[in-house]
Amino acid sequence: MKIASFNINGIKARLPRLKEWLEETRPAVACLQEIKTQDEGFPAAEFEEIGYHAIWHGQKAFNGVAIVADGQAPVEMKRGLGIDGPKEGEGEQARYLEADVNGVRICNLYLPNGNPQPGPKFDYKLAWMKLLRERMLELLAAEQPTVVLGDFNVIPEDKDVYAVKAMEDDALMQPESRDAYKRLLGDGWTDAIDTLNPRGGVWTYWDYQAGAWQKDHGFRIDHLLLSPQAADRLVAAGVDKEYRGREKASDHAPVWVELRD
User: Fold this and answer.
1) Residue 53 — φ and ψ, nearest 5°?
2) Distance between CA 39 and CA 37 in Å, rounded?
3) What is the CATH number of the domain that holds 184?
4) Start and end of every Endonuclease/exonuclease/phosphatase domain (predicted)?
5) DSSP code per residue over the chain
6) Which one of 8, 75, 174, 227 has the fewest beta carbons within 10 angstroms of its own beta carbon?
């Protein structure tokens, strides 16, 4: 069972690239982040044309997550973590969606960026990560095969960035962000890509600016965390890097994990 994550950076702008990737790689489940569309604007029919069924949690112009499954509809279990955005009166941002597919709990997230730091956006990031950990502890207690995946906006270690100096002031690799991520792993989750690439040097994101893609100046912020029941079934995990180099590509590449049936 192949389960993938792709921060698409605007589903309408990238729809041809997204469908191309789905048809060429055919994951059983794909989790999308930054769909950047309200619920009524989500192009569900476009996915149905190629055999995928979707659920989604949208928001105008920003954020937004979706889960698509090959040949069946994901069974939605939860949306949102119950935390309001950093602006007063903003309400909850569309960042979390959870569903069951083929006996596996799929938890799709788009974690807050946290910049600029310090400040309210960074405080929001850390508060969001605290609530995420609480939910993930509940999921561990259920002892169901579970994959928590998406854009975590955390560079876990120095080996996960092309140049530590270039990102040292960024919210993505502050000690507080890294500690919150490490606590998730300490609870019993397995970072699939790191487990199979312990030396690091695997990137999932390359900025549009300063020729980052051409220079391979990237870093790893898209992660696949497996519960013990899912980790026991781990076969492979990787990054579909070449899709970042295609015309009108997202600034992220898809990441995926394969679990034994």
Assistant:
1) -115, 145
2) 6
3) 3.60.10.10
4) 4-252
5) -EEEEEE-S-HHHHHHHHHHHHHHH--SEEEEE---S-GGG--HHHHHTTTEEEEEE--SSS--EEEEEETS--EEEEE--S-B-SSTT--B-S-EEEEEETTEEEEEEE-----SSSSHHHHHHHHHHHHHHHHHHHHHHHT--EEEEEE-----SGGGBS-HHHHTTSGGG-HHHHHHHHHHHHTT-EEHHHHH-TT----SEE-SSTTHHHHT-EE--EEEEE-HHHHTTEEEEEE-GGGGGSTT--SB--EEEEE--
6) 75
Total domain count, the chain: 1
Nearest Cα to Cα of residue 233 among 68, 85, 99, 104: 104
Residue that has been written with the tokens 């000690």 in this structure? 175
What is the pairing mode between strands 190-191 and 146-151?
unpaired
157-189 pLDDT, tens digit each: 999 999 999 999 999 999 999 999 999 999 999
Do 151 and 129 meet the contact criterion of CB atoms below 8 Å apart?
no
5 pairs with which residues across the strands?
Answer: 31, 255
Distance CA 188, CA 174 (A): 22
Containing structural domain, residue 165: 2-259
CA distances (Å), 222 to each of 67, 98, 111, 261, in order?
16, 17, 10, 24
**Alpha-carbon span 39 to 28, nearest angstrom:** 23
pLDDT score at 88: 87
